[in-house]
Design goal:
By secondary structure, the chain is an alpha/beta fold. It is built from 11 helices and 8 strands. Helices cover 39% and strands 13% of the residues. Strand 2, helix 4 (109-115) and strand 3 (119-124) form a beta-alpha-beta unit.
């Protein structure tokens, strides 16, 4: 984060490595966001639409392997144990948060999220597809409400990253706002000064299958195979206990594979030269 306090995780891209690779990153990560492939219509919105990254292929030419751990739909009772694991493993993450009725009591945890060097980013206030995708105006009213809900706990003026519920190419939104609503929202987001990102690896931890920790780990390992840049979608909701259980082994696996951890914002700051 641009104005975060507290220590920076030691594993967040050592300075010597950064100096060598900054120029390469500026060339290879030219796209502001991952450009997702079009998903199939999903009758149960669950935020696991797959994404293929334009930037991803170019990063293969670099020696540095990067992973961004991202958590959607929190905070919740599971956010604090996730923070404990991240602290123990000394790695950063990005939290795309909501302000739903079920997580109002946990919003104060966002102070700790920011203080410990993680990134707080926007997802949705209500996360109700029928409401937020009814029109572009409805979407931005939802984001405004989210920013207001977060402002007591974080420096809201420094929060300018978002993730569209369902991803930037979700087709569920077409039911409510028409087939062109996502393209309009993307254009408007950029006009308003927001940066957005999807994902290219999914833990599939919020699906109706309710995978256990072993399956979540396998999903991530399979999704990360062959990628030098991984943006991993997970969830820190009250129902994703298995994600908490899988997280230590997931982090260890990425470390064994030679990945360096950073937040989404840190990745793009590196691209822009800091």
């Amino acid at each position: 984060m641009k104005k975060q306090s507290g220590k920076q995780p030691r594993r967040c891209l050592g300075c010597a490595v950064l100096l060598v690779l900054l120029c390469g990153m500026a060339l290879y990560l030219g796209a502001k966001v991952f450009a997702p492939s079009e998903p199939e219509e999903d009758t149960i919105p669950n935020d696991v639409f797959a994404v293929q990254g334009e930037a991803e292929d170019s990063v293969e030419a670099m020696m540095l392997k990067i992973v961004c751990l991202t958590f959607d739909d929190g905070p919740s009772p599971n956010t604090e144990p996730i923070l404990e694991i991240l602290r123990e493993k000394d790695v950063p993450a990005t939290f795309f948060v909501t302000a739903q009725d079920v997580n109002q009591d946990y919003l104060p945890l966002l102070r700790q999220v920011a203080e410990e060097g993680h990134q707080v980013a926007l997802h949705s206030a209500t996360h109700r597809y029928s409401d937020i995708y009814a029109s572009t105006e409805a979407f931005w009213l939802d984001i405004k409400a989210l920013r207001e809900a977060l402002s007591p706990y974080v420096d809201i003026e420094s929060v300018h990253w978002l993730r569209f519920p369902g991803g930037s190419t979700n087709t569920v939104s077409h039911k409510y706002g028409g087939s062109g609503i996502m393209k309009r929202l993307i254009a408007q987001a950029e006009e308003k000064g927001y940066e957005w990102i999807d994902w290219n690896v999914s833990a599939e931890d919020a699906t109706s299958q309710h995978p256990d920790a072993a399956q979540i780990l396998e999903n991530v390992r399979a999704g990360a195979e062959g990628r030098d840049l991984c943006v991993v979608l997970m969830h820190d909701t009250a129902k994703t206990d298995a994600t908490v259980e899988a997280l230590p082994d997931m982090i260890d696996w990425f470390l064994e594979q030679g990945y360096h951890f950073c937040t989404v914002e840190q990745m793009y700051e590196m691209r822009d030269g800091g």
